[in-house]
């Protein structure tokens, strides 16, 4: 969908409000917000969309943690706005040299070797680096690790990621315990 920045702000505010209502009905606090799919990727790299999405979240609750792709313009903008930003990495996707994900229609978009995915996650978490599809090593921040639910091995991979991180001395904590903002 092509939407205007104003529409992005309104949609974000509307959907976060609806999510809050469902969470409240279940007596569960709302801790963080993550956009989904194509909109997540589009807003992460389009500063006009990112600004309006972040304003919508801030207007609803400036204490919510916002997930954004590691080192993306959206993550930087959110930090500059004083929001709590959790930078996210992707266990089962390859990266381009500019830090973006390899497009899904590329034959090497997905990390097919699950052991490779585990080694990459440990490197992202401990060394703050990831190897791109071209072989270059780039910086990355791994506050959160995404495993795509459409990966048939997603649940197994998530369990293996937890185990390998713990074995390698990486603490696993709720976002609210370590993500800080200025609000």
Automatic annotation (TrEMBL):
Organism: Helicobacter gastrofelis
Residues annotated as transmembrane: none
Pfam families found in the cross-reference section: LamB_YcsF
InterPro entries referenced in this protein's UniProt entry, alphabetically: Glyco_hydro/deAcase_b/a-brl, LamB/YcsF/PxpA-like
Official protein name in the record: LamB/YcsF family protein
């Amino acid at each position: 969908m092509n939407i205007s920045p104003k529409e992005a702000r309104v949609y974000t505010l509307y959907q976060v409000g609806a999510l809050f209502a469902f969470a409240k009905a279940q007596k569960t606090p709302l801790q963080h917000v993550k956009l989904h799919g194509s909109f997540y990727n589009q807003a992460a790299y389009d500063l006009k969309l990112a600004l309006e999405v972040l304003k919508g979240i801030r207007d609803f609750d400036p204490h919510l943690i916002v997930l954004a792709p590691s080192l993306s313009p959206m993550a930087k903008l959110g930090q500059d706005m004083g929001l709590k930003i959790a930078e996210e990495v992707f266990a089962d996707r390859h990266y381009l040299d500019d830090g973006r994900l390899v497009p899904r229609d590329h034959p090497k978009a997905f990390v097919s070797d699950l052991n490779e995915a585990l080694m990459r996650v440990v490197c992202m978490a401990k060394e703050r680096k990831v190897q791109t599809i071209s072989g270059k090593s780039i910086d990355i921040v791994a506050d959160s690790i995404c495993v795509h639910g459409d990966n048939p091995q997603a649940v197994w991979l998530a369990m293996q990621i937890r185990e390998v991180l713990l074995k390698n001395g990486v603490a696993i904590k709720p976002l609210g315990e370590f993500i800080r903002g200025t609000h």
